[in-house]
């Protein structure tokens, strides 16, 4: 009898251990999500990050059969919404959907109450899209080297969507490396920057491929170069910076999902799988690649961690070296 009881106890312990190590999606594991999910977006409604958040929310609702709320909390150069995510309970119910501004925050905004590395756990890099430089058709330049030559002979102007954006930082770094000066016109939105670029009030504009694509397509702007590692299919005739002889001149918009630090790895893995499923759905994938002019990545946490470290180091150095502020 004693031996039989020991056998039963050992068998019970094995079963409990097996259940504890099951993936979170297993019907015998603790269920996730435990209730409605919240996606914090540190921007106002309508921008590209909000669009990505809402695409994700729709897919999660459909695939997980759970309510998903997108909460827009803009302000403070995205620090307000990001802080809310950093302070959220690490219970798998709150997630941050953000963009390239996330990597700029540590150097751009002084006295942050959170650390982008220590207080967050990467989930996935959803997609990347190159910034593009385009000029008004009245300007004669058709290659990046011609723009540099013109800048040496005079003070060219360019528009961006704001101080501290990756477009602004990339142009600052490039101009310094080329030994030229370019006057920066910072705008509060892509629409305002586009208006002045199309009107010819500035010589050039740097912005995401999605922002500039309609004006390029109808001839109101002429593209010079795209700042990604490979040509976008929708802009197959526009060379990359490497092809133009400037391989270090890279600047991409990106979107990703992060969790509050200490969120259990099993929940992060489950969210990764659910996010991949949402964006691999044909309709959603087409919207990302065509409307947002982006490349789907859907990398795992470790790949995103490495990517983020590179972004924080690159743009942080530009901000510090050139004393750039958010205003």
UniProtKB/TrEMBL annotation:
A Pfam family hit: TctC
User: In which domain of life is the source organism classified?
Assistant: Bacteria
Q: Which SUPFAM superfamilies match?
A: Periplasmic binding protein-like II
The residues forming a coiled coil are none
PANTHER family with a match to the protein in the record: BLR1237 PROTEIN, TRICARBOXYLATE-BINDING PROTEIN
Q: Give the UniProt family note.
A: Belongs to the UPF0065 (bug) family.
Report what the protein is called. Tripartite tricarboxylate transporter substrate binding protein
Organism annotation: Roseomonas nitratireducens
């Amino acid at each position: 009898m004693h031996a039989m009881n020991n056998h039963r106890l050992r068998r019970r312990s094995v079963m409990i251990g097996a259940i504890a190590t099951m993936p979170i999606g297993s019907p015998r594991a603790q269920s996730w999500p435990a209730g409605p999910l919240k996606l914090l977006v540190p921007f106002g409604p309508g921008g590209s990050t909000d669009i990505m958040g809402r695409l994700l929310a729709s897919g999660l609702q459909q695939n997980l059969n759970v309510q998903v709320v997108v909460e827009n909390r803009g302000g403070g150069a995205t620090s307000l919404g990001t802080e809310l995510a950093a302070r959220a309970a690490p219970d798998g119910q709150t997630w941050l959907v953000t963009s390239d501004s996330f990597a700029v925050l540590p150097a751009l905004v002084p006295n942050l109450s959170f650390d982008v590395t220590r207080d967050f756990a990467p989930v996935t890099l959803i997609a990347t899209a190159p910034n593009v430089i385009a000029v008004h058709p009245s300007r004669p330049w058709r290659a990046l080297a011609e723009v540099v030559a013109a800048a040496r002979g005079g003070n060219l102007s360019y528009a961006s969507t704001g101080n501290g954006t990756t477009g602004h930082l990339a142009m600052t770094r490039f101009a310094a490396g080329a030994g030229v000066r370019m006057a920066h016109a910072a705008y509060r939105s892509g629409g305002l920057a586009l208006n002045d670029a199309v009107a010819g009030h500035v010589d050039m504009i740097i912005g995401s491929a999605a922002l500039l694509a309609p004006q390029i397509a109808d001839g109101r702007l002429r593209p010079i170069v795209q700042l990604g590692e490979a040509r976008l299919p929708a802009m197959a005739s526009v060379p990359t910076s490497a092809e133009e002889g400037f391989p270090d001149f890279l600047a991409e918009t990106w979107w990703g999902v992060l969790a509050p630090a200490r969120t259990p790895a099993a929940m992060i893995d489950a969210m990764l799988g659910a996010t991949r499923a949402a964006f691999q759905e044909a309709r959603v994938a087409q919207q990302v690649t065509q409307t947002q002019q982006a490349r789907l990545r859907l990398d795992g946490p470790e790949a995103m961690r490495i990517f983020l470290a590179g972004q924080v180091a690159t743009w942080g150095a530009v901000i510090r070296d050139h004393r750039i502020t958010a205003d």
